[in-house]
Amino acid sequence: IDHFRIALEAFEQVGHRYEYANTLTNLALAYRATGLYDRARSTYQEAITAWREEGAQVREAATLLDLGFVDYLEDDLDRAEEYYRRAIESGRGDLELEIGYLDHMANVHRKRGNYTDAGSLLQKALDGFDREAHPLWEAHILANIAELALDAGWISRVSEPLRRAEEGFTRNGDHHGLIHVGYLSAKLAVEN
Prior knowledge:
Elements: H1 2-14, H2 17-33, H3 37-54, H4 57-73, H5 77-91, H6 95-112, H7 115-127, H8 135-152, H9 159-171, H10 175-191
C-alpha cells in the first residue's frame, strides 16, 4: 500500500494523470483485498473522478463496477446494484464491461435468492462472447454457474460447469480460479 502512495505522489508531481488514476484504482483494490472497505470506497471514488477528468470512460465504468463490488461484499446490494447500473450506462458497447456487468448483477440476484434471474444473467453473459477468444471469462462464469446451483440447492447441476471451469482454469494457469473451484468442490462434498 505504501508503494502505491509513493507512486501517486510521483505521478501527481509530474502530471501523469492516466498513471495517477490507474494507481488509485490499484490502491483501492489493495484496500479491498485487505478488508479496508471504507478506504477502498473513497479511493475508488477518487479514481472515478480521475478517470472522468482523463476522459477514460470505459476505465471509469470499470471502476464503478469495482466500487459496487465493495458494497456487494458489505451486503449493501441496493447500492452495489446502483453502481453496476451506472457502470453499464457509462460503458455500454465495451464487451468486457458488459460481461462483467451481467456477472456482477447475477451475484446480486443470487445473494437475494433470485436464483432463476441470476441463472438467466449468467447464461446471457456466457452466450455474449467468443469462448475461444476468452477462455478465462468462460471458466469464471462457469464457476459462478456452479456456485449458483449449489446455493440454490440444484446439486445435479453443479458438477458439469464446475468440471469445465476447472479445465479452463487449469489450461490457462489461473490459480485463483482453481482455488475458487476447490472451495466449490469442498462445498459440494458437504452437500452430498
